[in-house]
Amino acid sequence: MSRKFNFGYLIYGCWLFCSIMPILTLNGFAEDYLKINLTKELKKGNFLIGLKQYLGSSNDSFSEKQNIIFSTKNNPLKLHSSNGLVHKSKKINIIFKEIPLKTPFTLQRFVFGPFASYESAQNEANNLKKQGYEALIAYPNNWEVWIPFSEDLPNKNLNYKLFKKSYKSKIIPFVVSEYSQKKLQGPIYISSSEEIKINDINYGKKFYLAKDSYGTWTLIQKIKFDDYLEGVLPYEIGSNSPFEALKAQAVIARTWALFNSQRFNIDKYHLCTTTQCQVYKPPKTQYKNVNKAIKDTTNLIISYKNKPINTFYHGSNGGISASASESWKIEDYFYLNPFIDGSNSLKNTFKIPIENDDELDKFLDFVDEPFYGNYHSLFRWKKIRSSEIIQNRLIKNQLIENKSDLMDLNIIDRGPSGRVTKLEIKLRNFKKPIVLVKDDIRRILSFLPSNLFTINKLNDNLWIFKGGGFGHGVGLSQSGAIEMAELGFTYEQILNHYYQGTKIMKIEISSQ
To answer: Is the distance from CB of 319 to CB of 374 less than 8 angstroms?
Structure first.
């Protein structure tokens, strides 16, 4: 049974705001729309999605000719720039130019990372805040934590580096017409009453161009919650999934987006479009069941103690769910616990914790009775890799400079679900072994589908990793949810199965 949810509980996560450049008052429209307020947008039922980041940079693949073209078929586009410029047309061409600075400047900061996940970066940021530092989470290429430069160096035991860069120019957008080029100042708001094509692809009706924290620009889409989900469900669980599984995915995707809406506060948007958030693409096709699943669950989220939960989900848990602290350097959640993902008889066959290789091998080899989601292509897997490939991964991630004989791989610790939480790599001529922890294991050894595995040495050069599942294993298993739906479980039952002790609530959207 649904209960009303006060949006005030949700906004507790929205912190980390960057300063916004002074805005000239054009009219009431500019006052309302040119100030990017992430908290207010959530209250109104809108997400701000970073569609394309790093625009204007040398490696910008979206605007290869350093320009973006917005176009409509019938109704005009409206562009409002923070420097007072208003432009209306059915076609708006924006170019990016690198303009020399009259007064070059140098930027310095202390940087922690890279981190394999936002969760681990957030944990580091929270630890630094407890020590009195002003910590910001950023994503220039990987997740990092920044603290301002000062002569008072951070604790030497902390793993950080000094970032120092001199700037002699900055990237500035211009709107180009047949006879002129006019300078723009962010944030820039572009809208129309009809679908807008951007570089000949339909995206939506409302967009921002905003400057990011790296000297480049981001194209941001403003979109209603449920319209956003239409671009998530087909790519996260698949449009052909059973209806109850689609409804479960709609609820968890909405809840996840709300809980995690602070990820990119430093760059003035809520979420990205990749697996660092939820995969989102502007829908090119309307799927009847997807749209109905979203409509039937409109504004429903999962809550624990009247607050939205962190609805982690993944492709396959390999038959056993993981706790959050097994996958990331974070504290556990009460509603995410390790359990055997199958019938009661399976739960009686295997006990948690799974503590060693022998116990995990028995679990991985068990075929007498199916687990939920055992049809997934990576429910069980084997990966044979050479010592050279493993060393190449270490070099690429700057853990070693040159190749050295790989002597041994040792699993030091496992979590309650049997997932590897510490992996030791011994190399010849290295006094100390390299130890990979939790999500860094899959970040460094990216050929591993999950952390649920055993290791055996085939010979001096080859190693076999035998494992199960695809992804971190925390929360809902999409393959498990699909099978449960096929067996007749409702979406409420599926959600209660994966997020134990939680409730479904309805959020209230502000009309203001």
So the answer is: yes
163 and 222 housed in the same domain: no
Q: What is the CA radius of gyration of the chain?
A: 25
β-pairing, 77-80 with 86-89? antiparallel
Token pair of 337, please? 């616990």
- Tell me, rounded to whole angstroms, the distance of Cα 94 from its chain centroid: 28
Residue 106 within any structural domain of the chain? yes
What is the pLDDT at residue 283? 84
**383: CB partners within 8 A, 6+ apart:** 447, 448, 449, 464, 465, 467
- Please give the structure tokens belonging to residue 18: 């960057």
Q: Which of 280-284, 305-309, 468-472, 474-478 has the lowest mean pLDDT?
A: 280-284
137 to 36, 183, 192, 329: CA distances (angstroms): 19, 30, 33, 15
Same domain, 45 and 136: no
Q: What is the pLDDT of residues 55-65, one digit of tens each?
A: 998 777 776 66
pTM: 0.89
Decide if pLDDT at 15 tops 50. Answer: no
Q: Residue 35: which domain range?
A: 3-99+172-233
> How many angstroms separate the CA atoms of 64 and 397, rounded?
28
